């Protein structure tokens, strides 16, 4: 049986929301929400916060969590979790973003289970989009999968483009003329340990640079990404206003 470690990359500095991991959500630091949700995953053997800031490290240790200090030079969360993975002995590393306080334990279990397919090097999730606003928003990443559930492409654009159901006005505005199915990408990843090491050594790719989507690097170099489907909603915290959205959601379903 494959053993899995959840690593939560978390940094203090942010241009849009400095100190974000320590922002309080219903009186509890956001990083604790993420950590405790991850700890409840049945298939996670351990959960570790990877940070380059002592303030985050101390908060995690104070509430009884496990944290490790990493270098300050990392350009991405993937680089940070790879540093941590080198000192671990697990078959699967799960990257749970530190700004996803609504992540559910079964979502983590889902991405771990996806790697039971030996063809998959990475596992991730998608959710059906129910509003047109998300389809056209470049902040909502869309994904198209093949018949076996493997990613064909990720994009900030509305993919697939329903030629017979969508109309483009002269000003470029696009409207639907019928029902169309789109899926948004949920940014949680499971990696086989050897695949994570391989990705860390790869150069960025033209699609990745164009879309500013790191997962396109893996696809560019032939690494297969298996995509599971979830019905759970997530709200990533990018700015202070998002805290209120998360609290409203938590209070509605508590």
How would you characterize this protein structure?
By secondary structure, the protein is of the alpha/beta class. It has one domain (4-232): Spore Coat Polysaccharide Biosynthesis Protein SpsA, Chain A (Alpha-Beta Complex), CATH 3.90.550. 30% of the residues lie in helices and 24% in strands. It has nine helices and 13 strands. A seven-stranded mixed sheet has the order 5-4-1-6-12-7-13, sandwiched between helices. The chain has a two-stranded antiparallel ribbon with strand order 2-3. Strand 2 and strand 3 form a beta hairpin.
Short description:
The protein is an alpha/beta fold.
Structural class determined from secondary elements: alpha/beta
Using only C-alpha atoms, the radius of gyration works out to 18 Å
Q: Determine the strand fraction and express it as a percent band.
A: 15-25%
CATH architecture, by name, is Alpha-Beta Complex
Assembly state of the chains shown = single chain
**Spatial strand arrangement across the major sheet:** 5-4-1-6-12-7-13
What coarse outline follows from CA principal-axis ratios?
globular
Unreliable runs, pLDDT <50, ≥5 residues? none
| Average predicted local confidence, pLDDT | 90
Q: Report on the biggest sheet.
A: 7 strands, mixed
Number of domains: 1
Q: What is the CATH topology classification name?
A: Spore Coat Polysaccharide Biosynthesis Protein SpsA, Chain A
Order of helices and strands: EEEHEHEHEHEHEEEEEHHHEH
Total helical segments: 9
Please identify which CATH superfamily we are dealing with. Spore Coat Polysaccharide Biosynthesis Protein SpsA, Chain A
Highest-level CATH class? Alpha Beta
Give the helix level as a range of percent.
25-40%
Q: What's the total number of strands?
A: 13
Distance linking N and C termini: 35 Å
């Amino acid at each position: 049986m494959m053993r899995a470690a959840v690593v939560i990359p978390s940094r203090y500095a942010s241009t849009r929301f400095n100190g974000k991991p320590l922002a309080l959500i219903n009186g509890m630091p956001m990083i604790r929400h993420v950590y405790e949700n991850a700890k409840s995953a049945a298939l996670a053997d351990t959960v570790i916060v990877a940070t380059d800031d002592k303030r985050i490290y101390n908060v995690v240790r104070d509430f009884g969590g496990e944290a490790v200090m990493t270098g300050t030079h990392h350009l991405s969360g993937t680089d940070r979790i790879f540093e941590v993975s080198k000192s671990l002995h697990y078959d699967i590393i799960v990257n749970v973003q530190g700004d996803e306080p609504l992540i559910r334990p079964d979502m983590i279990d889902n991405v771990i289970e996806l790697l039971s397919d030996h063809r998959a090097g990475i596992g991730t999730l998608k959710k059906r989009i129910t509003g047109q606003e998300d389809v056209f928003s470049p902040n909502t990443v869309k994904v198209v999968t093949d018949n076996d559930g493997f990613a064909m492409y990720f994009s900030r654009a509305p993919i697939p483009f329903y030629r017979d159901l969508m109309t483009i006005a002269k000003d470029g505005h696009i409207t639907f003329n019928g029902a169309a199915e789109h899926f948004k990408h949920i940014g949680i990843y499971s990696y086989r340990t050897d695949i994570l090491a391989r990705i860390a050594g790869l150069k960025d790719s033209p699609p990745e640079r164009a879309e500013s989507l790191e997962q396109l690097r893996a696809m560019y170099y032939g690494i297969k990404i298996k995509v599971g489907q979830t019905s759970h909603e997530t709200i990533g915290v990018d700015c202070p206003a998002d805290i209120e959205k998360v609290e409203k959601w938590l209070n509605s379903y508590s």
